Amino acid sequence: MLERDVGQPASVAGQGDVGVAGTTLITDLPYGPKAAEIAREAVAVALHGTEADLLDDARLITSELATNAFASGSPPLVLCVDRTAPTTGGLEVEITVTDGGCSHPALSSPPAPEEEAESGRGLVIVEALADAWSLTTGTHGTRAWCRLTRNARPSTAST
């Protein structure tokens, strides 16, 4: 069992996965305007040492998912970041934000925001940056999930 505390990430090394090294971070997010900021900080902890472009994409996606959960959902807000490195190389990151639910039906694809709109681009950003994503909404819980994958870089050593 993982202990969770608002704003204090819990991290657990992967166990039981043959051929995969991984880390899971789970943290409660505050139900308020600070949710996105705390989520970005938690992702930085979970992905410490990864390449800058992956970290930037993950932080932006997480910020959007946390903002949507606060704006459209209800408490509690929970962030989960799974980082795995298969023995074949590369890196896979799965980000999930859940909340207590909302009264809006799930969208099959994000709507295009009005050009002058100040909001409404969150899921469009997620769709553009993630390799896969999903959104499941309901009155008892909402789950926004995405995956970012980076392939192993070929060796530059000469033979």
From TrEMBL:
Keywords: ATP-binding, Kinase, Nucleotide-binding, Serine/threonine-protein kinase, Transferase
Pfam families: HATPase_c_2
CDD domains documented for this protein: HATPase_RsbW-like (cd16936)
Superkingdom: Bacteria
Listed Gene3D superfamilies: Histidine kinase-like ATPase, C-terminal domain
InterPro entries attached to this UniProt entry: Anti-sigma-factor_SerPK, HATPase_C_sf, HATPase_dom
Boundaries of every Histidine kinase/HSP90-like ATPase domain copy: 36-144
GO molecular function: ATP binding
Protein name according to UniProt: ATP-binding protein
Lineage: Bacteria, Bacillati, Actinomycetota, Actinomycetes, Kitasatosporales
